[in-house]
Specification:
Chain lengths: 395, 237
């Protein structure tokens, strides 16, 4: 009897590729519980990786915004010999900043005032600008909408017993503490809101610059704050450029904040990278363990394939193909779940939605596949150790 | 001793030892092409060990083995796998079908590893064993007799010159045993060499010749009257 005779060539290749695909598909779709465990192992790792990478990639955007909201990163004050900052001087500063992205800016004029027999600092400014620059201020009530309305720092309001909607009388101090106030200029304002800033502003009266000028007479600005969108290392250069271009002023980056932004960022990224590496290592171990269990479970099947004439290279190829499909499916699941995870974190921490850059999604899938491939190295060795004579022996 | 190149299976003083235990002990056995050989013997006498060596799943620890004119004694794993692929069809007592593949796919697996998967040819093989209608079923959806017939179709699909069956009817009822034996009859008529291990005297009697193993040695053998032409060859222990 003649041995089976087959034509070789393209037909042969196509038929066998179809069969290989059919076997992998059958193994994946008809052994669902096992496959689900393996996919889950990969998906968990991919989720962590995709989620953390998304946060790491998206964090600078949020963090810069977050930190900028905490305060300005560039402060302009009068040069040593100057009494203050004139409007024209500030226009020059604006020119020096042309081309930069200034997220917010506000100029302040400070004046000591008396309110309910106590001395406080009053800050006069364009309150629309202040509202933009001090987004982090928690204002109970409303921001002043027009002249005659003021914000009281929370401490001031407490001392004076003032509440939102009440009127307060503010006067300029004259002579000694405790001297009669009647002679001093004074004005009555409506408290539109009480501000908690967690800083010096809690002990201030914040009012429109025009109201302050009406009370205390015209005067220059004392300080101007800018929030410039830029990396901290550029900020020093920008400040220096301003100081040179406008000799009447001295510009300085807000050092502590600017540096901490970079520090926090670097620290967070290192932390995320560490966690991601750890998770990936665990994933690999998980995949490896699962696949070793799969090999043990399918040892008779593998023995049979060997008995039917599959040599180790063929067994390896089938196993790796199955693993790569598992990695792909797990990776895709991880992208979806990782995005959900990052989105959740974004909502909880930054109160904003995050975006997963396309390259993070791509890298997540690629790494999931790579980790799965590495994870099957040990299981593959196990398949090589399977002795068909031993496994197929009837007991 | 006859010329080893004339027999399809030619064992010369083959021993398979597991440590101190000689599962096969200097067995010499010659099987001419086309013969149906029955192997009987008590449990532990070395029948499966013999089949594993003849089927190139295992190697002797001493002695020499020629399969179809080739000395395969010293071949490495890879080469043995190739010999097995091309020369041997294996039928198991426990069928060993792949659970997540259909009957048809189980047959195609053997084609795939041999040369080329061909669904039409695999289906024809299933029809030949009376399972054309069940080709799409998973092993768990088939009876024991049906599973054994799938196993046989798989063993035969590449038309190997040598078919080895270790207790092929051990798990079957009388009706299914009869079906399997009829398939073997047809195979035998076509000239395929068959070696069948069995505990069943009736099954053993269907062969041309019978060898009896005991403690790893050939202790007895006889030629069945149905085929008096077969010469009594090569028994040494
Ligand atoms: N892998 C092994 N390691 C050690 N001893 C083994 C191994 N395989 C088989 N043996 C021993 O070799 C001897 C022959 O075993 P074998 O399976 O060939 O017997 P058998 O004739 O097929 O028995 P049965 O009728 O029960 O199937 C037995 O004593 C068995 O315990
Ligand atoms: Mg046995």
């Amino acid at each position: 009897m003649a041995a089976r005779n087959v034509t070789s060539g393209d037909n042969h290749q196509v038929a066998n590729h179809t069969m290989a695909r059919r076997m992998v598909l059958a193994s994946l779709t008809r052994r669902r519980s096992r496959v689900l465990i393996a996919v889950a192992a990969v998906a968990i790792g991919a989720t962590a990786l995709g989620g953390l990478a998304t946060i790491a990639a998206d964090i600078p955007r949020h963090l810069s915004r977050e930190l900028r909201e905490v305060g300005a990163n560039l402060v302009v004050s009068p040069a040593g010999d100057q009494p203050g900052l004139a409007d024209t001087t500030l226009q020059q500063v604006d020119q020096a900043l042309a081309g930069r992205q200034v997220v917010a800016q506000a100029a302040f004029r400070y004046q000591t005032v008396r309110l309910a027999n106590q001395s406080y600092l009053a800050a006069g400014a364009d309150l629309n600008q202040v509202q933009q620059a001090k987004g982090y201020w928690a204002v109970q009530g409303e921001w002043p909408a027009g002249p005659g309305q003021v914000l009281l720092g929370t401490d001031v309001a407490a001392w004076a017993g003032a509440e939102v909607g009440q009127n307060v009388t503010v006067s300029l101090p004259v002579g000694q503490e405790g001297a009669a106030d009647e002679a001093a200029p004074q004005a009555v304002y409506t408290v539109s809101g009480i501000v908690t800033a967690g800083g010096a502003e809690d002990e201030m009266v914040v009012l429109w610059a025009d109201d302050l000028a009406a009370l205390a007479g015209p005067g220059p600005w004392d300080v101007a704050e800018y929030s410039v969108a830029s990396e901290s290392k550029d900020l020093a250069a920008i400040a220096q450029a301003i100081s040179q271009a406008v000799p009447q002023v001295q510009a300085e980056p807000v050092q502590r904040l600017a540096r901490s932004e970079a520090d926090v960022l670097a620290m967070l990224r290192t932390l995320l990278a560490l966690v991601a590496t750890l998770v990936l290592a665990l994933t690999m171990i998980g995949v490896s363990t699962t696949m070793v269990a799969v090999v043990t479970e399918r040892r008779v099947e593998i023995a049979l394939r060997k008995a039917l004439g599959a040599d180790q290279a063929v067994i390896n190829r089938e196993f790796v193909t199955e693993a790569l499909v598992l990695g792909l499916v797990g990776g895709l699941a991880g992208v979806g779940l990782g995005y959900a995870f990052a989105w959740g974190v974004g909502q909880a921490v930054f109160h904003r939605s995050v975006q997963m850059p396309w390259w993070v999604a791509l890298a997540t899938v690629a790494v999931a596949i790579a980790v799965t491939r590495l994870g099957v190295i040990v299981p593959l060795r196990r398949t090589a150790q399977i002795d068909p004579a031993l496994q197929l022996r009837e007991e | 001793m006859t010329n080893p190149l004339n027999d399809i299976v030619h064992l010369d003083q083959v021993t398979r030892a597991y440590g101190d235990l000689k599962a096969l002990d200097t067995v010499s056995l010659e099987v001419p092409a086309g013969q149906w050989l029955s192997v009987v013997g008590p449990s532990g006498s070395g029948k499966t060990t013999l089949m594993n060596i003849v089927g190139c799943l295992d190697r002797p620890t001493a002695g020499r083995y020629w399969l179809n004119g080739t000395d395969v004694t010293d071949l490495n794993q890879k080469a043995l796998t190739q010999v097995r692929r091309n020369q041997v069809g294996l039928i198991f007592q426990k069928f060993h079908l792949i659970g997540h593949l259909t009957a048809l796919e189980n047959v195609m697996v053997a084609q795939y590893y041999h040369s080329m998967a061909d669904a039409a040819e695999a289906l024809a093989a299933l029809e030949r064993v009376g399972l054309g209608a069940r080709a799409g079923h998973l092993p768990s959806q088939l009876s024991g007799g049906e599973q054994q017939r799938v196993c046989i179709a798989r063993a035969l699909i590449n038309r190997p010159p040598l078919v080895l069956a270790d207790e092929p009817t051990g798990n079957l009822d009388a009706a299914n045993e009869q079906i399997v034996l009829e398939i073997f009859d047809a195979l035998h008529a076509e000239g395929t060499t068959l070696i069948v291990v069995t505990h069943d005297a009736a099954v053993a009697a269907r062969g041309d010749r019978q060898v009896v193993l005991g403690h790893g040695r050939v202790v007895d053998q006889k030629v069945h009257p149905r085929s008096p032409a077969v010469e009594l060859a090569g028994v040494a222990a």
